[in-house]
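Appendix C: a fully annotated inverse folding record. The material below is reproduced so that readers can follow the format used throughout the book. The structure is listed first as tokens, followed by the designed sequence.
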């Protein structure tokens, strides 16, 4: 995925581009190798598109608000997308929406999502700097984590350390202890991220 939102498929043996997909300013991409599907999230077009590499189909519109992030949960074969302050759950095999969890936060926007390696938790960040740990099967808040003072730009789960790494517009990265009763900052990294 390049900075203009164009997806290039590369052959790792020859390091050459074998296919280019221009699907209107893509902002995130996930590849489902076993089902030969590509999932494309587009901020500009406000949609998530399921592209079948063998059959052409029409994409389903995700939401009437900006889609900020799409993540894949391989354990249960689902995608989670966030638009506004809501998270939608999608069946990765059919591309159909399964459920929607409204108002996960008091903020206007969810800005980042991540799935833990067991597929039991979704980490969500918002435009007020809050970090939530959510049960993706029912949308219930499992716990809050210490956040940032500005919008969250990225969340990554580090299972080996049982930590969550978050970044924000304030040029900080926070390493959060996932297992503590209240997830607190164990390390603060400053600088240009």
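Designed amino acids, in order:
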């Amino acid at each position: 995925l390049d900075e203009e939102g164009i997806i290039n498929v590369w052959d790792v043996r020859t390091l050459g581009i074998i296919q280019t997909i221009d699907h209107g300013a893509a902002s995130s991409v996930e590849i489902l190798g076993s089902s030969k599907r590509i999932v494309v999230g587009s901020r500009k077009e406000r949609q998530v598109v399921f592209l079948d590499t063998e059959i052409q189909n029409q994409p389903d519109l995700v939401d009437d608000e900006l889609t900020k992030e799409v993540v894949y949960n391989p354990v249960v074969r689902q995608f989670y997308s966030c638009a506004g302050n809501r998270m939608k759950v999608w069946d990765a095999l059919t591309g159909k929406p399964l459920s929607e969890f409204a108002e996960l936060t008091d903020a206007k926007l969810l800005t980042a999502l991540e799935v833990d390696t067991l597929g039991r938790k979704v980490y969500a960040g918002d435009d007020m700097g809050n970090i939530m740990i959510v049960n993706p099967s029912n949308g219930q808040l499992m716990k809050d984590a210490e956040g940032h003072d500005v919008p969250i730009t990225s969340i990554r789960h580090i299972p080996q350390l049982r930590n969550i790494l978050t970044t924000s517009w304030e040029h900080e990265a926070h390493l959060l202890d996932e297992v503590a009763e209240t997830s607190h900052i164990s390390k603060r990294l400053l600088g240009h991220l």
